[in-house]
Amino acid sequence: MTSIKQFLCGTAVASLVAGTGAAVGVPIGYVGPSALDWWLAAEHVLLIGVDGTNLSKILEYAYNDDSGFKIAMDQGITGAATEVNHTTISGPSWSTILTGVWDDKHGVVNNLFRPEPYDKWPTVFNMLEYYKPEVNTTVVADWDYINGIAGAGGHPADNNIFVPFQDDWATTDAQVTAQTIAQIMATANNPDDISNFLFSYQVQVDEAGHSFGGGSAEYAQAVVNTGANIKEILDAIAAVKAVTGDDWSILITTDHGHQQSLGFGHGFQSPNETTQFVIFDQAGDHATDGSQNLNYSIADITPTILSLFGVPMRSDFDGVSMAFDPTVLNGVVSPVDLKQALTDAIAMYGYPNIGNDIMLGIRTIVTSIPYGLNLVVTEIDKFLQSIVDQDIFLVSGLAEFLQQVVQFTGGLVVDTTDTLARGIAYLTGSGVIAPTDPPLPPAGSADFSDVWGLLGGDHGLAAPDLALPDFDVA
């Protein structure tokens, strides 16, 4: 038995009466699930991010019953996607995944974190926290850039868990897995039946690619390890579902692929670098298990999550809901051999036109310079800090002075080169499209559930919260 509880705020009622459908993010003229389907929105959504993972390597090394990758594919729909014509660097790509817009809008160019883009282009965390603050939002990650995104904007994630490096990246990802499972298991004892969005990020595949190459045995082993981690997470969801009856919608994706040889890794436009994938298992939908979708994109992930929770869609999203948008639903096919069908789909993708290839290559080179300088400055700072910590007479004092000099001059150099790089990136098409939707109001301003506050009235009336009765669904 599944107990489903959903509340409609005053704004939702007003919008539905007006016939706009905006309260639940339904495009005007959209023909899809009934209003009741939207009101009974998903209560639990899990997004698993695996950095730098080629779908072809999953199919080669982790397409077996012991891998969470295959289990998720068998229980959902898989799309071989591509980000050709967009930067294959982690920061810009994860920003697309978590905002629903490409880099020509959000303007993120490298892995130097800056919070400003997420003020104009709110993240999935911001949107959920503003429109549905009752949803508990959590991120568990072992790259602090992801935690930075989750904490950016005026409405950050409720729980922002950073897992520091421990021994090696496989061990660190195992800690991410454990923390993720703990968050999932905690929902079994939740007396308030709180809805949840959980983003779990793992990095060992990308790190193996940078250290050994995407065609290496180490990269293959990292893919196998990550598949095992995902299986543990899916097993935890199954255990919780057996207790609570609540189903989870699950999405699994990557930010980019990897060059096969040891080198730069990614950042350019070869098919191995632009390759991506999206696996989507919608709660309660088993009719399309094991299918393929030819229209999935990483830009669809944020719109999909928002639609599952009944949150309004931005008009300037590049992505659409994979759960409800007919243009995506029409791309579902049921292949006889999913592995072969996905292999064939990967082979369809090639290079961009030569002009875009050159333009994006220049952008990658230029924007990587400040990031590389920052890594050097950080390592020098760590070395000097190790001397300071030893408290050696005179020497530690000198190291502390040098540390301050390095921090000041190094920071100035990094900031200057990053500003120049972002200027060049703009000239090559990054961040050139401005939002058409207004920014989210800051925290503490009129809430979405306060329809009277949004209308600007001061009449001492509160918007009613209308509660649907609990439904027991067999």
Automatic annotation (TrEMBL):
It comes from the Bacteria. Pfam families: Phosphodiest. One of its GO terms (molecular function) is hydrolase activity. This is Phosphodiesterase. It comes from Mycolicibacter sinensis (strain JDM601). The lineage of its organism: Bacteria, Bacillati, Actinomycetota, Actinomycetes, Mycobacteriales.
